[in-house]
Amino acid sequence: MGRHRSDPLGIARLALVGLAVVLLLAVIVVGARALLSTFGSEEPAVGASSTPSARPSAAPSTPRVPTVRVLCQADRCPVFVRVPGGDVLIDRELARGEQASYFQPELDVVLDDASTVEVFENGTARSPGPPGERQAFSVKRPAQ
């Protein structure tokens, strides 16, 4: 009769395993949300444009001009764009023909080789730099 006793350590083990599973699921959810938010911050590559009717806007006759648009013209174009003091929007190499457009009011841009990309600031082409030159600059959206 004395052989049948409840093992208090068995319940504690089950509680610890359950807690570990909950923590693992929380880490997976946070990581997935962070990964999905980075994919959603970029514009589609060249050739994958959306139609004007797909965008809801009050004035369809005036196209929305990005604050910065970067178009890669070499095989690899290292690009870094961020909101000053805030989120990093892109920090990777673009492939030839790939572009990235951003509409935030103010942006910091760093180009590892300014001659490999074509940059448009508020719709105006920026003059390319000499081959191999690293350029860092800020762009502000004009007041409307």
Task: Please describe the structure with a list of short key phrases separated by commas or semicolons.
144 residues, alpha+beta, four-stranded antiparallel sheet, elongated
Distance between the termini: 86 Å
The largest pleated sheet is described as: 4 strands, antiparallel
Order of helices and strands: HEEEEEEEE
Total helical elements: 1
Helix content: 10-25%
Strand content: 25-35%
Q: Number of DSSP strands? A: 8
Radius of gyration: 25 Å
Low-confidence stretches: 42-57
Strand order in space, largest sheet: 4-1-6-7
Name the overall outline.
elongated
Q: Which structural class best describes the helix and strand composition? A: alpha+beta
In short:
The chain is α+β, with helices and mostly antiparallel strands and 144 residues long. The protein has one helix at residues 8-39, and strands at 68-72, 76-82, 88-95, 99-102, 106-111, 117-121, 124-125, 135-140. The longest helix is centred in the first third of the chain and has 32 residues, at 8-39.
Describe, in plain words, how this protein is organized in 3D.
This protein is α+β, with helices and mostly antiparallel strands and 144 residues long. It has 1 helix and 8 strands. It has a 4-stranded antiparallel β-sheet, with no helix packed on it. A 4-stranded antiparallel β-sheet has the order 3-2-5-8, with no helix packed on it. The chain is elongated. It has one helix at 8-39, and strands at 68-72, 76-82, 88-95, 99-102, 106-111, 117-121, 124-125, 135-140. The model is unreliable at 42-57 (pLDDT under 50).
